[in-house]
Design a protein that fits this description.
Keywords: NAD, Oxidoreductase. GO terms for molecular function: (S)-2-hydroxyglutarate dehydrogenase activity; glyoxylate reductase (NADPH) activity; hydroxypyruvate reductase [NAD(P)H] activity; NAD binding; phosphoglycerate dehydrogenase activity; transcription corepressor activity. One of its GO terms (cellular component) is cytosol. By secondary structure, this protein is α/β, with parallel strands linked by helices. The protein has two domains: 139 residues, NAD(P)-binding Rossmann-like Domain (Rossmann fold, 3-Layer(aba) Sandwich); 182 residues, Rossmann fold. It is built from 13 helices and twelve strands. The chain is elongated.
Length: 347
């Protein structure tokens, strides 16, 4: 009989089709924990998860109703950077730590953001279409209207791990950089060769605005019509963060009316987009399907980290990544001890 029960929604995952839970179980089998799939609807999930020791959240929202019904849950673990599918406030109120994997795919997302910047700036999609449609002679004249990249300004909204990795990639291109992030010390921003700035300064001075804010209630529709109106008519807006941080209707209006020149987006407010989303037919928009974190190591790295975080908490240790760390200091969790950030799942 298993010592711990980890309940997860059935059929809801980023995982590669057909793969199981082998990577997670590398850390879970030694402590006698099993993963049990439950129907991905609220009522049936509650029935299966009520006495679970842990929740492996993927796909379906883990609502306050679900969290309040949990009687024995020690941790809710996500295999993603974003935690918007879990009611973190409700989990915190119940003293349940919520873990994520904020540092697993930094390099991939930063690569993708830089790719969107360059492809949007050099109009890669439009150039590709010209060649395929027999419009070879139109390619060079179109780019003669575009300035040199060196010396232009890249502005970051939020300057977390991904934005810092993008800044490292952008520096050799000769870009001047600035960032708005009220939660990060100006000295830390400056240490990365980036100028600390206000949101208005980033919007009005940048030739590229790269959005990296996470999906949290307080930043829902952080950027709207007033913000896009502050940007340069030649500016390119890049988003590899979360679609919900941007008022998409305002962004569409900005692109249609020429307030900004181009948008290069990996995330949208509604995913996948409806067939009548105007951006699907706009030539000044470059789109990818929320794939910035994807690479050959995606499944393996993500799932091993999930198993490791679950095993730590179920063994009475602190998780490596916790989005509501205040619960670790609560009376109910006094027995917990911190684990070194250097320790790996097989150490």
């Amino acid at each position: 009989m298993s010592k711990f029960r980890v309940v997860t929604p059935k059929g809801a995952s980023f995982t590669v089709a057909g793969s199981g839970y082998g990577y997670e179980k590398e850390a879970l089998d030694p402590i006698g924990a099993e993963i049990i799939e439950a129907p991905a609807n609220e009522a049936e999930f509650i029935a299966a998860a009520r006495t679970a020791d842990a929740i492996y959240a993927k796909g379906m929202p883990i609502s306050k109703t679900i969290i309040d019904a949990l009687e024995n849950c020690k941790v809710i673990t996500l295999g993603s950077v974003g935690v918007d599918s879990v009611d973190v406030k409700a989990a915190t109120a119940r003293g349940i730590p919520v873990t994520n994997i904020p540092d697993t795919f930094i390099e991939e997302v930063a690569d993708h953001a830089m790719m969107l910047l360059l492809s949007g700036f050099r109009r890669l999609v439009e150039q590709d279409k010209m060649v395929r449609q027999g419009r070879w002679a139109e390619g060079r004249p179109a780019l003669l209207k575009i300035p040199r990249l060196m010396g232009q300004t890249l502005g970051f909204i939020s300057f977390g791990r991904v934005a810092r990795a993008v800044a490292k990639r952008a520096a050799p291109f000769g870009l001047r950089m600035m960032a708005y992030d009220p939660f990060i010390a100006e000295t830390l921003i400056s240490d990365h060769g980036v100028l600390p700035a206000t949101l208005s300064e980033v919007l009005s001075q940048s030739d590229f605005v790269s959005m990296h804010a996470p999906a949290r209630p307080e930043v829902h529709h952080m950027l709207g019509e007033t913000h896009f109106r502050q940007m340069k008519p030649s500016a390119i807006f890049i988003n590899t963060g979360r679609g919900a941080t941007v008022n998409e209707e305002a962004l569409i209006k900005a692109l249609q009316e020429g307030w900004i020149a181009h948008a290069a987006l990996d995330v949208l407010e509604k995913e996948p987009p409806s067939h009548n989303n105007p951006m699907l037919g706009m030539e000044n928009v470059t789109l990818t399907a929320h794939v910035a974190s994807a690479s050959a190591r995606f499944d393996e790295a993500r799932k091993r980290r999930v198993g490791y975080e679950l095993s730590l908490v179920l063994s009475g240790l602190w998780p490596v990544s916790c989005v509501n760390p205040s619960v670790l200091q609560s009376t109910a969790l006094r027995r917990w001890q911190p684990v070194s950030m250097e320790r790996g799942p097989n150490s």
